[in-house]
Amino acid sequence: MKASRYLVVSAALLLAALHSLAMAQDEPPFRRGAALERMEQFKKIRMMEVLKLDEQTSIRFFSRYNKYQETLRELRLKQAGLLGQLQTLRRSNAGEGEYDKIIRELRALEGEMDNAKGKYLDELSEVLTKRQLAEYIVFEWRFQQNLRELLRDAQQGRGMPPR
Mean pLDDT over residues 118-126, rounded? Predict the structure, then answer.
């Protein structure tokens, strides 16, 4: 009973954060950042609860977590730039060689992302127990899955076609 109530409260908080995120699509960029920040804070609180982190472990964990998130953000920005270049090439009927160069760079970037994740998980294994690491991996997967489902549901509810 207590677990189901906790799940309902967690879901309600996540829905509120996602609603803010969905509504932020029509708002100025500074408001979108606030919605994303609230969602990230909710995620961090849930991670602390799920992983049962003490204060010292929490500090060490989030130091590594924040560093990895920044690395991912930088890699995703590079990826977005390369995808933009691909779109430009498609519109200009570019030659095969031009496509090949960008595709090779995208593949190399995917390798960098994989390497960054491997290094991050290695660093986490220095801080977390194996059980906590497993809980974290499952938490991240579920969080992303739930986020995608809620965004899809929000799009359908607003009459927006899925991307």
Answer: 97
Q: Which of 100, 84, 141 is nearest to 117 (CA)?
A: 141
Residues 39 and 92: their CA atoms lie apart, in Å, by: 39
Q: Could you give the 3-state DSSP secondary structure of residue 162?
A: coil
Q: How far is CA 10 from CA 39, 46, 149, 153, in A?
A: 12, 8, 15, 17
Q: For residue 88, what are the domain limits?
A: 55-128
Give the per-residue pLDDT at 29: 43
Encode burial over 16-35: b for 16+ CB neighbours within 10 A, e otherwise.
Answer: ebbebbbebeeeeeeebeeb
User: At residue 105, does pLDDT exceed 60?
Assistant: yes
Closest listed residue to residue 24, CA positions, set 14, 37, 13: 37
pLDDT digits (tens, 9 = 90+) for 58-81: 999 999 999 999 999 999 999 999
Q: How many domains does the chain have?
A: 2
Claim to verify: residue 59 and residue 123 sit in the same structural domain: yes
